[in-house]
Amino acid sequence: MPTIMITGAAGFIGGHVAREAERRGGLSLRLMSHRRPPAGAAAAGPATAGPDPATAGPGPSPGSGFGHGHGHGPGAVVPGHRTVRADLSDPGSLRGVCEGVDVLLHCASQIGGTPEANEAVNARGTAALMAEARRAGVSRVVYLSTASVYGRGAFRAARPEDLVRNPGSPTSGSRAHAEDAVLAAGGVVLRPHLVLGDGDRWVVPGLARILRALPGTVEGWAARTSVITAQDLARLLLGAGLAPAGDLTASVYHAAHPVPVTVRTLLGAVAAVAGPAADPAAEDLTAVHARELLAARGIAAQGLDMLTSDHWFDSDPVWRDLRCTPGPDFEAAFKELAEGYRRALLDI
User: Fold this and answer.
1) Does the N-terminal or the C-terminal CB of the chain have fewer CB atoms within 10 Å?
2) 344 or 155, which is more confident?
3) Which residues pair with 6 in a beta bridge?
4) Residue 253 burial (CB count, 10 A)
5) In 52-168, alpha helices (H)
6) Residue 8 — very low, low, confident or very high, per pLDDT cuts 50/70/90?
7) ∠ CA 155-156-158 to the nearest 5 degrees?
8) Among candidates 14, 23, 31, which has minimal Cα distance to 85?
């Protein structure tokens, strides 16, 4: 029975990974959390002081208007598995956490906050964790990163090997440094773009705020974007951790549903659960005008870049290499999530 350690196990994506591992069975789980213990897990070890590393999934840089931040986990039920309390910003607290671990799924990141906090948790913390993994002889490390390491731009069926990282925020920059530490240790990096699902308090709520602030569409909302459900992302993370080495043809993968979604379709689904909003047929705004309107309402306008230009990342290789079948397409998947989002958006 292989032992898998999941960092950020009480967070948005980490919680889904823990639940997916429990569902799969035949695995011994070690769940690393800073302050919030995963539901149902047996605690072990003292809590450490210091800022709480965000355990949400990846996403647009803070300030984009709908980026991920300190998310909440989906209530993973993992009875009987060990919880390790450690702090990525305190390398001393990591001593020995990887002993006996076969696979490390690193899902914890600091999202937002000060540049110093991002550097301490994402860059130096990940480097210290990789040193522990090497010392303990961990056979596979998988890091949950973000397509935000590419910065701004238009991306169409983009492959990792064809892109240059150009992070535009302290969070994205420090996560790029975390990638470097993982890759130097022989690990694997997954880069999702927009992640949806139970526990998302940033992507769909942020989109809802933008929709409610604008009197119509923006340049037709014709752009295409890559999305993935947290459940599918958890399957990929776990699959990458357990796959035979010979099956992996790359060290960096994009993680998304293979079929991109038009922004019009994405926002239409959000509007259906977000309650009253402006009639999208009322006006078709230019991006410049939309930014002005958002700024006047105190809403960060950087997220419009992701809604008015293609952010479509080729993810076929990860599904092929892991011999994994993608889940339902966006519209079918969102129907399953709609009621949860409707409740979550009541106060938005």
Assistant:
1) N
2) 155
3) 31, 105
4) 28
5) 115-118, 126-136
6) very high
7) 75
8) 31
Q: Which of 188, 149, 184 is nearest to 168 (CA)?
A: 149
Report how far residue 231's alpha carbon sits from residue 33's, in angstroms, rounded to the nearest whole number: 20
**Mean pLDDT, rounded, of the chain:** 86
pLDDT tier at 1 (50, 70, 90 boundaries)?
confident
Query: Is the predicted pLDDT of residue 65 greater than 50, yes or no?
Result: no
Structure tokens at 279: 């009639």
If you compute the radius of gyration of the chain from its CA atoms, what whole number of angstroms results? 19
pLDDT higher than 70, residue 102 = yes
For residue 318, the one-letter residue type is: V
Pairing of strands 188-191, 140-144: parallel
CA dihedral 64→330→205→88, nearest 10 degrees, is -60
In DSSP notation, 4-37 reads EEEETTTSHHHHHHHHHHHHH-S-EEEEEESSSP
User: Collapsing DSSP states into helix, strand and coil, what is residue 119?
Assistant: helix
Taking the alpha carbons at both ends of the chain, their separation in whole angstroms is 44
What is the side-by-side order of every strand in the sheet holding 261-262? 155-158, 311-313, 224-225, 261-262
Q: What are phi and psi of 284, to 5 degrees?
A: -115, 105
Instruction: Specify the long-range contacts of residues 202-205, CB closer than 8 Å, at least 24 apart.
Output: 202/56, 202/59, 202/66, 202/67, 202/68, 202/69, 202/71, 203/59, 203/66, 203/67, 203/68, 204/66, 204/270, 204/273, 204/274, 204/341, 204/344, 204/345, 205/66, 205/344, 205/345, 205/348
Residue 95's φ and ψ, nearest 5 degrees, are: -60, 120
Q: How high is the pLDDT of residue 153?
A: 87
Distance in angstroms (rounded) separating the CA atoms of residues 83 and 39: 10
**DSSP run (H or E) holding 211:** helix 203-213
The pTM for the full model equals 0.88
Q: Which tens digits make up the pLDDT trace of 18-39?
A: 999 999 999 999 999 876 555 5
**Span 209-230, average pLDDT:** 93
